[in-house]
Amino acid sequence: MYGIVFLEKEVFFMTQEDLTEIEGTIGYRFKNQYLLQQAFVRSSYAYENGGEDNEKLEFLGDAVVEYVVTKEMAKYCGKVNKDHKYESRLEEGELTSLRQKMVEDETLAKRIDELGLNDYLIMGQGDIKNHANQVTKVKGSLLEAIVGAVAIDSGFDQKAEEIVVDNLLNPKFYLENGIDANDDYVSELQSWFQMKGYGLPKYEIESNILDPHGYTVMCSLVIPEVNVKLSQLGFSKAKTTMGVAEAAIEFLDKNGLLYNPNDIVKNPSKDNAISQLNQLYQNGYISEPLYEAEEGRDDDNNIVWDMKLTIKDPSIALCGTFQSKKEGKRELAYKALMVVLNHRTSVNNPRLLLN
Predict the structure, then answer these.
(1) Where are the domains of the chain?
(2) Which terminus in the chain has less CB density within 10 A, N or C?
């Protein structure tokens, strides 16, 4: 990946191919590529070799990212009502908390990892020794610096800024699916391949292709189980790889091949039924199991518990009377577990393979 490019008085370890690849990933072509390179220069490198680092660009990008995220939140969470006033379904404190989570270093770093942009960081010897490109704060700062560089290069063009923030952070996805949602289709597909015993996905990358629409990269992948080949055209290896992985996940899901609850719960048992049912919930196969218990008396005036378990998706409702809440919860969980594991047909929930 790395090579030496002489740029007037400075030497940067970044090739023209790297610069073009990054531009394709973020969705913006720089008029001044010096700014793009500066976004990747750590202060440690600048201290050792001279020149500007990315900290001032990070400062600018921080403000731009927060503005774009705030704008998306305003559109998603609220509207102008019939009285011509803006209203939001979230209170001010909730909006502040949500925005904070969306722009915190952990969220930004996750996206940098998914796009592989931290591999391009230009670091000093101390940073290299300490693997600074894997540090959450460093990766979060990198995303902000890239946005800052775009802001300067575009003359603070709002449309350009929004496109880049959308490509880098994807705020709409998190607003629609929750801040903890995962849109890393590459990792998800890798997990599926390994779970099925196929090893790692083998992506075929073809660069510098001749495409009438101007695309420069094509990524292809064969799904072994059905011997289907999927391809994606684009402007960068990272984006096309993510596109192929997303298409593969959608194909597997549509054809009922993606998820199987039996892959999670391999040995169902009554003793572990509560936790096993919860595992299915945590992995998205079912909606949350809800337990209800009401104290009562039997014919001998002993305390008994009328228990109920409901699951919205798939529709399950079980009830019974038990000597203890623990016994009842375990018994109902086991019955629900067996219902779930004995059904394999895909339904509307993209992570649910049940009737």
Answers:
(1) 5-177, 185-254, 261-341
(2) N
Out of 58, 62, 72, 153, pick the active-site residue: 62
Q: Give yes or no: 66 in active site.
A: no
C-alpha span between 218 and 200 (Å, rounded): 19
Please give the Cα distance from 142 to 22 (Å, whole number): 13
Examine domains 5-177 and 185-254 and report if their fold is the same.
Answer: no
Task: Give the burial class of 234: count Cβ atoms within 10 A of its Cβ; 0-12 exposed, 13-18 middle, 19 or more buried.
Answer: buried
- What is the rounded CA–CA span in Å between residue 151 and residue 133? 23
8 Å CB contact between 32 and 126: no
Tokens of 232: 């994606």
CA distance 193 to 179: 26
Give per-residue pLDDT as tens, 129-174. Answer: 999 999 999 999 999 999 999 999 999 999 999 999 999 998 988 8
Identify the bridge partners of residue 308 per DSSP, sorted by sequence position. 292, 319
Q: Name the catalytic one among 21, 72, 144, 161.
A: 144
Question: pLDDT tens-digit profile of 57-110?
Answer: 999 999 999 999 999 999 999 999 999 999 998 899 999 999 999 999 999 998
Are 307 and 296 in contact, with CB atoms under 8 Å apart?
A: no
* Whole-angstrom distance, CA of residue 185 vs CA of residue 197: 18
Q: pLDDT tens digit string along 202-228?
A: 999 888 787 777 788 899 999 987 889
- Specify the CATH architecture of the domain 5-177: Orthogonal Bundle (1.10)
User: What is the Cα–Cα distance from 223 to 211, expressed in whole angstroms?
Assistant: 25
Active site residue 166: no
The CATH T-level fold of domain 185-254 is Double Stranded RNA Binding Domain (3.30.160)
Q: What is the pLDDT of residues 268-312, one digit of tens each?
A: 888 888 988 888 887 777 889 999 999 999 888 889 999 999 999
Was domain 261-341 assigned CATH 3.30.160.20?
A: yes
